[in-house]
Amino acid sequence: MRDLKGKVAVVTGAAEGIGAGIARALAAHGAHVVIADINAQGAEALADELAAADVRTLGLHCDVSDRTAVEALADQAFDAFGHVDIVVNNAGVLPPIKRVVDIDERDARWVLEVNVLGVLHGCSVFGRRFVEQGSPAHILNTGSENSLGLPHTGAGMYTASKHAVLGLSDVLRNELPDHIGVSVLCPGMVATRLAGNVRNRPERFGGAITPARDGAQHGMDPDEVGRRAVEGIRRGDFYIVTHPPVIELAKERWLEISAAFAAQAPRFEGDESLDTRAQIRRLRRPSATNPG
């Protein structure tokens, strides 16, 4: 999807931060943008900022943890523009920093319902429509450096959620037809107010609180992350990475895994019989006696 002019994109969690950066980059390429966020006022303000003669925008409220709300978002986007070509499942939250043994279950549910179910809802709701639509489309899910390794402790549920986003995206790209691309964005520290999302935490997850800190002040500019994300969409990349040092996290993880296999489960002749992928392919292959 090299040419984005006239395409229609829906971006969740787009009132500020990475989502806003992606929305700005899409609009700069001539795409029409639906800006969705739990902060409706912020979504509408950015929509007004980005509107131009050849770019239409729409700011909408959406709580991605609610599938019904995501269905309504899709309905509004398709009704307004007639089609959607790109969905960016970017909405995410960061709970208060705590050790795993001290995590509050309401914090855990909040993170999982927004960061994981929110992405699932977007993939499912828009993915089904993309299949039916039949034209080139793209799904971008926002992961994190926490998807690739362990940058720091104290964010157990956030890290678990971002591992889930990577896993979900990897399966998704192998299930969808070829006309639908899938990417996972894995940025490092970005100058956003992610920690400030606790101000918008719904009552069912413990309600709003004042954040202990208000974002990463020394991270990458979210507009730069947005530009890199959109270039990744245009190239059709699966992994979209932005921060060079994050490769060290991935290397550390892989080296530890590789060492474990070398010590505990080295390859041996005939071990193909233990290959899960080969077994599944064999089970799915029609037999000569039962081709159906």
Automatic annotation (TrEMBL):
Recorded GO CC terms: membrane
A Pfam cross-reference name: adh_short
KW Oxidoreductase (keyword) present: yes
InterPro entries given in the database record: NAD(P)-bd_dom_sf, SDR_fam
MF GO annotations: oxidoreductase activity
Keyword DNA repair: no
Keyword terms, alphabetized: Oxidoreductase
Family: Belongs to the short-chain dehydrogenases/reductases (SDR) family.
Protein name per Swiss-Prot or TrEMBL: SDR family NAD(P)-dependent oxidoreductase
Organism, scientific name: Actinomadura physcomitrii
